[in-house]
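Example (one chain per record):
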Amino acid sequence: MRLLGLLVIAFLSASLAAAPPIVLEWDKNLLTIHDGRIPGGKIVVNYLEAYCRAGSTDRDWRETVVGHTTELIAKSDDGTEVKLKCRLKDGVIVDHTIRAGADDVAFALTAHNPTDKESQAHWAQPCIRVNDFTGGDKTTYVKQCFLFLDGKLARMPTPVWTTTARYIPGQVWRPKSVDANDVNPRPLNPQIPSSGLVGCFSGDEKWIMATAFEPHQELFQGVAHCVHADFRLGGLKPGETKQVRGKIYLVPADVPALVKRYERDFPEQK
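Predicted structure:
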């Protein structure tokens, strides 16, 4: 009996050791990333908040959004994989496979236009809410956020900080490849980021949540305790298919190690 008890304990210990630290849950357009290691124990993502048209920088938001619905297609028993399908009102279909790793969440998207008309869906917003993670309110959480300028980590608010736009507050950064007329109608920072990585430190400064997507449209510090790395579709011609990939990292606050991983995962953004 004693041997049997020891075997049971060993089995349970091995099972716990093998259990994934990150578990995914999706319901009513919210993707919840459960991770007991991080402050707050979870990250909630409005997934997806919106698909958007070009020409959006100074236009009413209601005219920018391309309506869509999202459906849960499948989920794994252990919570490490979720599959979703977005149906845009213009006929475009976007399939999402989301997988949890040991300390990250990977996104693989396939967007297809099965119609005979060109789609005007140019970009989309995964809205990552970090209030519990940073421990800040809508104002104070900003100082925990960062991006990279001139190859160096820059905490927000950065020395150059724009305060005028159709909608305020917030802050938008675009890569050189994206037209300044085609981004979020929040204050557009004139500085060009040196990478597509954006994130924040936890309130105790021991953890980092960071994210990147490729192709990428913009980086955004928002108004819902959120940060974005919004991805780019660039419109889809009739019959056209495009691929998008992304990551959310949940890692100890070792910035050089994070940058190395990011550069390996997204070499085209260096």
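Caption: Residues 22-269 form a domain with the Beta-galactosidase; Chain A, domain 5 fold (CATH 2.70.98).
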